[in-house]
Design a protein that fits this description.
6 helices; 157 residues; Transposase IS4-like domain-containing protein; alpha/beta
Length: 157
Amino acid sequence: MESNIVAIAIDSTGLKRFGRDEWHQEKHKVDGKLSWMKAHFVVRMDHIIEAAVMTGKDVMDDQVVGTLCEQITADIGHVTADKMYDTNAVFQTLDSHSPNAEIIIPPKDYTFADNRHHSKRMSNLIECSAAGIMNWQKRRHYGRRNVSETAMQRYKK
């Protein structure tokens, strides 16, 4: 593994579980309960998966960031993720792992400035409010997150 990773993107995707019940439902044309798992990935900008975790469908994205960070042994310079990761706990976990990293996660809708927010989260919120979401995304290179989306699609097909 590299000693210093320039940038990563964090994301998750749902995966359909197949098994004996799938075959039975198809053969006899009966409805069944769908079963899903979630795959959570940390993807480097060169499309290499740096960390991965499989969870049940009910696990929220922000709950696995600590487990993902445990798999990364290098310092990170830039982290992007979608709004589902906009929590103080995620910012704290990422900041503890890589204190010098830029954490680029857009604020959830209806999030207001509050001194209880992590300082990097508060910075994102203020910048988004001042510059507008599109300008903020462009300035902060939020488009790098597309790498994770591309990686997800590659492995799902």
